[in-house]
Amino acid sequence: MQSGTNYSKNDTILKSNSYLSLINPINNLNQMSTDRNDYLLDINKILGPEMSKKLPRFAINFLKKRIHQDQINYLIQTTEHYHGVGFFKAALDYVGITYRIRGIENIDPEKRYLFVGNHPLGGPEALIIGSVFSEIFGDGFKVPVNHILANLKPLSEFFVPVRVYSSKQSRELGNQIAEMFQSDSQVLVFPAGLCARKIKGKVTEMPWKKMFVTQAKRYERDVVPMHISGFNSKKFFFLSRLSMLLKLKFNLGMLLLVDELFNKKGQEFVITIGKPVPYTTFDKSKTDMQWAAEMQNQVKKLSEGNGCLPNM
């Protein structure tokens, strides 16, 4: 089925099913509009002037390569939809990722939800779910993300940056998160906070934090469980394991998150949407942490029958 808004209530829907190349490159990239220039990725701006001066040129070039700066900027320079909801599909087509979605009949586009999902990959799920949500809800959704994804300017209007490795958020970010839950936008969170790790040879989702349960009750949002198939590369798991062994606060694997996106070319993912759980379900019979663990188990069960290898 071609991309579009005419969803069927069958078990699965094939989405983003073409490995389309982008619009032919423009003849003179130096004649880009100022608007496009504003959306380009620049590692020097991300690092800031002080850090950019301290790091040697080879280190800057290494980071540029790891975040695929040239390829992302080429996409921004040449695609028709260089920002906003259209960029989700443009990016997926450029990378060559396809997906199927199951259970779309479980949600009502007119209702306000809090979606919770597993976090197997770090980048592709944000683009895939963004593409799905843009078809259903238009531009009315928000996703808290790490600072790396938050610097992807074409999609910055949908992303709320959070500090993954700290329980402390700035007052400004705290206000943004509160506004996000208070708004009419759909909200998606990855309660694990971190991408899945390989532990004792098995890809394992980290325990879910309770924040989403607390916020669901506070802002009266029904919770929709969602499962995303897939897993990262051996290189990512090695660096993640090394970070744990060295007791580093920063996961070295995060340097490869954009790499992980680009090396998924030709892969198909399955998104499974479960039935909404009323926020009133989260009563005092369990603690918020216990409810979070129960919801994590529900998401794990959604992977059954999706035809993919288990990844939680």
CATH architecture classification name of the domain at 109-301? 3-Layer(aba) Sandwich
Helix share, percent: 25-40%
- Number of DSSP strand runs: 10
Separate helix tally: 13
Radius of gyration: 19 Å
Tell me the distance between the termini: 29 Å
Helix/strand-derived category reads: alpha/beta
CATH class of the domain at 109-301: Alpha Beta
According to CATH, the homologous superfamily of the domain at 109-301 is: Glycerol-3-phosphate (1)-acyltransferase
Residue share in β-strands: 5-15%
Task: Characterise this structure.
The structure is a single chain. With 312 residues, the chain is α/β, with parallel strands linked by helices. The chain has a domain at 109-301: 3-Layer(aba) Sandwich (Glycerol-3-phosphate (1)-acyltransferase). The protein is built from 13 helices and ten strands. The protein has helices spanning 34-39, 43-47, 49-54, 57-66, 69-78, 86-95, 124-137, 147-150, 171-182, 211-219, 234-245, 257-262, 288-301; strands at residues 12-15, 98-102, 113-117, 141-145, 159-161, 186-189, 197-199, 202-204, 222-228, 268-273. The strands form two sheets. It has an eight-stranded mixed β-sheet with strand order 1-2-10-9-3-6-4-5, sandwiched between helices. A hairpin with a 2-residue loop joins strand 7 (197-199) and strand 8 (202-204). Helix 6 crosses helix 7 and helix 10 crosses helix 13 (288-301). The chain is globular. It starts with 11 loop residues before the first strand and ends in an 11-residue tail after the last helix. Mean pLDDT is 82; it is low at 1-32.
